[in-house]
């Protein structure tokens, strides 16, 4: 009988604590690491696992993988240290690293050390997104015309080191790429800071695909919290609530809402990570997804700065010599 796979969680803060809880439920928690000794020890005592306040002092013998859920600006250095410790599978919370050059350098390091990456784009494991994808593949609403995503809430109660585009809207960038099964050719965005903070707190992004467009709205201003997805097609319309996981289809036959029992996306996500470790396979979403989403986020930020649409090829040209072409295809 194969032994259960063991994963250590680095960073037990606002979302890291959920990784700790779910991995424990799955019988896969190998330990916790957090610079906050009190927090690390509390989780270790609760779940009866080893703990440390530093990577260098943790014993990685028998550890199969690691979850990195520290602030994004620390992800690159933490990942390099874990790879040097011999950890072969890394799960890194979105947006994985801060920018495209870091993502490309990390991909190169992981290739050299035969390490594998799973990018933490949790909405792919949301039952609502799964159902929307199923409807689209079945042609339930014909050909998509417009995809629209809404992600709004008040300023997060956690450390913020990136603006709303890379920290929040990147989830919806990943969703529409996943549903479209292609990269858009260009991005146009308007973003700004109404709260006066140095990073943008609201953004509207338009991504142009070959036969449809995606309009993404995200902000950290609105008092209420909402995460929604809608797809308008040639023969119908789909609307999905990513919080309740309820999906409704409307067409010439009427309106149909499929009954759903809410299930935690993180459970499906971490199961997928553990399965990849057990099978020795490449996790999905992986490094190409992480790079692609950062490319589009940077295209949106550039568009907002220049007040014009930015083609994907402009971003490729920006990183000429960084081997971006090795991971993503240029748009024709």
Q: What is this structure, in a nutshell?
A:
The chain has helices at residues 16-25, 37-47, 72-84, 100-112, 127-137, 164-180, 265-279, 287-306, 312-318; strands spanning 7-10, 29-33, 51-52, 65-68, 89-93, 116-120, 144-152, 186-192, 202-208, 213-219, 226-233, 236-241, 246-251, 254-258, 310-311.
Task: Give the domain tally.
Answer: 2
In the predicted model, the low-confidence regions spanning at least 5 consecutive residues are none
Radius of gyration: 20 Å
Category by helix and strand content: alpha/beta
Tell me the CATH architecture of the largest domain.
2-Layer Sandwich
Largest sheet, spatial ordering of strands: 14-13-12-11-7-10-9-8-15
Calculate the mean pLDDT score and round it: 96
| Total DSSP helices | 9
The number of distinct β-strands equals 15
Which sheet architecture does the biggest sheet show? 9 strands, mixed
Distance between the termini: 50 Å
CATH topology of the largest domain: Dihydrodipicolinate Reductase, domain 2
CATH superfamily of the largest domain: Dihydrodipicolinate Reductase, domain 2
The succession of helices and strands, N to C, reads EHEHEEHEHEHEHEEEEEEEHHEH
Strand content: 15-25%
Bin the helical content.
25-40%
Q: At the first level of CATH, what is the class of the largest domain?
A: Alpha Beta
The coarse silhouette is globular
